[in-house]
């Protein structure tokens, strides 16, 4: 984020959080969900995790790495993420450029 408070347009679909990243029963998202739930995130309040991911993507302490993958333009963000319990786990979030207008969350994974 810039000093004047500007930040890029970022979108975190609530369904991505509720049905994938915070769903312990999801075949691929289950281990990620257990990680994020251990830090106090709650599937009944996905907006809290959405805001934490947006803050992480604009945090000067994080490393941003652009990646071109065929027709897809992605941004990988690695660094600390604020959590409800106050700890700062290191997380990798992946964002994809959508419709020439905004970055949309693809996934988030723990960096341990």
Walk me through what this model shows.
The structure is a single chain. With 112 residues, the protein is of the alpha+beta class. It has one domain (10-110). The protein has 3 helices and 5 strands; from the N terminus they run E-H-H-H-E-E-E-E. Strands 1-5-4-3-2 form a 5-stranded mixed β-sheet. A hairpin with a 3-residue loop joins strand 4 and strand 5 (102-110). 21% of the residues are buried.
Give descriptors for this structure:
single chain, about 110 residues, about 30% strand
Low-confidence residue ranges: none
Main β-sheet, in a few words?
5 strands, mixed
- Proportion of helical residues: 25-40%
Number of domains as seen in the coordinates:
1
Taken in chain order, the helices and strands follow as EHHHEEEE
Strand ordering within the main sheet: 1-5-4-3-2
Gyration radius over CA: 14 Å
Strand tally is 5
| Relative strand content | 25-35%
Cα-to-Cα separation, first versus last residue: 26 Å
- Alpha-beta classification: alpha+beta
What overall form do the CA principal axes indicate? globular
Mean pLDDT across all amino acids = 93
Helices, by number, come to 3
